[in-house]
Design brief:
Layout lengths: L3 E5 L3 H12 L3 E6 L10 E4 L2 E4 L9 H9 L10 E3 L2 E6 L5 E5 L2 H11 L4 H23 L12 H7 L11 H8 L3 H8 L19 H8 L2 E3 L4 H13 L3 E4 L3 E7 L2 E7 L2 E4 L2 E4 L3 H8 L7 H4 L6 E9 L9 E4 L4 H9 L10 E4 L14 E9 L7 H20 L7 E7 L1 H8 L31 E3 L10 H15 L1
Parallel strand pairs: 1-2, 1-13, 2-9, 6-15, 13-19
Antiparallel strand pairs: 3-4, 5-8, 6-7, 10-11, 11-12, 14-17, 14-18, 15-16, 16-17
């Protein structure tokens, strides 16, 4: 008899879970409230301009390739990507301009020529980042932290012997400040806390594992844009027989005798042996499990930051800009204090500009660019977002205009906006937080919800709000961990 699995949510983790279950012989149905797959990893179009709506950085491509290999297909037949020669362009308020070359020698020369930093300090930091990844990735990223077997194997024992070197007790900023002598380089390495929506002045220095992905392994660009990750995996799932049901809002996860019964959709219960929720875990409990006592301590953990994004069609080209661009704030610590303590938008925010037309020219008309313009903001806590958005727009336009020496406002010919409220409504992300819980304390890794339920047999969880965390790589790993628990 064929076993049946139902998945709530067609985010990237939900799609990956469906692929893994289909390969295990399950009949799989995926229910998605929106009319499209991908969740945050989707796209929008404004006339002749196309934008990747959410995540814009692609690392660890082997996690996508693994799903094709598992399904007996060749990745290159369906999904193509290329390494980036430059990871990011950095603009500082003092006029400094840095290019983060993928070539280590060129990057060290750039740092040595334009800052007061020792190239050896960069080498040491990246070696330490590599060491953190080699020691912790298998334990904290690739396995369940909620099974005793994770902690009693050879790799775990090796990690225990290195605990004193893993920097749990300093903040990310403290470690970087001690490592580097130039404040601009400290700021550059502090920014990696934002990759999981955290504060570098509070997050543990173990978060310095993140630069390893970009500098040591490499950053990439999918040849047809970030949304092609969603599209290629969605098509793979369909080739495996997965059934997707769009504009189908799951109403309740039904339970009988502490065991999964099925999913209630449009008033009818579809019965399943296994249910995987890709919905934010807070809203899974609040909306879909009304009769189940929630793990309040886990769900009430402080949430990550959110984002305010302006999608701008620009009738101009900027040769000094690349795919990824950062315009730093003058006072980084104040910026994060406003985000996490004051719950508002700093008057001088760091601005991130992603321009996929640099690598995919058809994303904008000739002589034009598509700007995904983002600042980090607090999650939705009832702020007056309309006022904050208007103020932030003026600030961003003035800041970038001044730095590039142009009147940016006059170049904007198309616009759409995504703020924490719309992130929350479109993706069911609690408070519009991009990464579930923040990682602003040394125990954060242990305070994420498990990928399975101890109380309800057959219920599993994936996505950025559960272990191991947010972002494309960790969401894909969450699917792997969850389905490993099923099997």
């Amino acid at each position: 008899m064929i076993k049946r699995a139902g998945i709530v949510g067609a985010g990237i983790a939900g799609i990956a879970s469906s692929i893994r279950l289909a390969n295990k012989g399950y009949h799989v149905d995926v229910y998605e409230a929106n009319a499209y797959p991908g969740g945050k990893l989707s796209e929008i179009k404004l006339g002749d301009y196309r934008f990747d709506a959410g995540p814009s950085l692609f690392t660890l491509p082997e996690l996508v390739e693994e799903l094709f290999t598992l399904s007996g297909e060749q990745t290159q037949d369906h999904f193509e990507y290329q390494p980036l020669p430059v990871a990011c362009h950095y603009f500082y308020e003092d006029g400094t301009f840095l290019q983060a070359f993928a070539d280590r020698k060129k990057f060290l020369e750039e740092i040595g020529r334009k800052t007061n930093e020792r190239p050896e300090a960069i080498q040491e930091a990246l070696q330490r980042s590599s060491h953190l990844y080699d020691t912790l990735s298998d334990l904290f990223m690739k396995r369940s932290l909620h099974r005793w077997q994770t902690f009693v194997n050879k790799k775990a024992w090796r990690a225990y012997g290195k605990l004193h070197r893993l920097d749990f007790f300093r903040s990310m900023h403290q470690a970087n400040q001690q490592q580097f002598q130039d404040d601009r380089v400290v700021q550059l390495f502090n920014r990696y806390a934002t990759y999981n929506g955290s504060n570098p002045y509070e997050a543990p220095a173990t978060m310095n594992i993140i630069p390893h992905l970009e500098f040591n392994i490499g950053a990439y660009f999918p040849s047809r844009g970030m949304y092609s990750i969603t599209q290629s995996l969605y098509r793979l799932a369909k080739r495996l027989g997965v059934q997707f049901h769009f504009q189908s809002q799951a109403e309740e996860i039904k339970i009988r005798n502490s065991k999964i019964q099925g999913i209630k959709v449009e008033g009818e219960v579809q019965e399943y042996d296994v249910v995987v929720s890709n919905m934010d875990v807070v809203n899974t409990y609040r909306k879909l499990l009304p009769n189940v006592k929630p793990p309040t301590r886990l769900l009430n953990q402080p949430k990550s930051s959110s984002a305010l994004i302006f999608y701008w069609g620009i009738n101009h080209t900027f040769p000094e800009l690349d795919l990824h661009n950062i315009f730093f704030s003058q006072d980084y610590q104040q910026e994060f204090e406003h985000i996490f303590q004051k719950k508002t938008v700093y008057h001088d925010p760091t601005v991130y500009v992603n321009i996929t037309a640099k690598y995919k020219p058809d994303d904008a008309p000739p002589g034009c660019e598509n700007w995904f313009t983002m600042i980090n903001v607090p999650n939705n806590d009832g702020q007056n977002w309309d006022t904050l958005i208007d103020q932030a727009r003026d600030t961003i336009v003035d800041k970038v205009s001044r730095r590039l020496g142009v009147d940016l406002g006059s170049k904007i010919v198309a616009e759409d906006i995504l703020d924490p409220r719309t992130i929350e409504s479109r993706t069911s992300s609690s408070q519009g937080a991009l990464y579930g819980n923040s990682s602003n304390n040394r125990y954060a890794a242990f305070l994420r919800h498990a990928n399975f339920s101890r109380k309800i047999k057959g219920l599993y969880f994936c996505g950025g709000s559960v272990h191991p965390g947010g972002g494309i790589p960790l969401s894909l790993l969450s699917a792997k961990i969850a389905i490993d628990q099923v099997m």
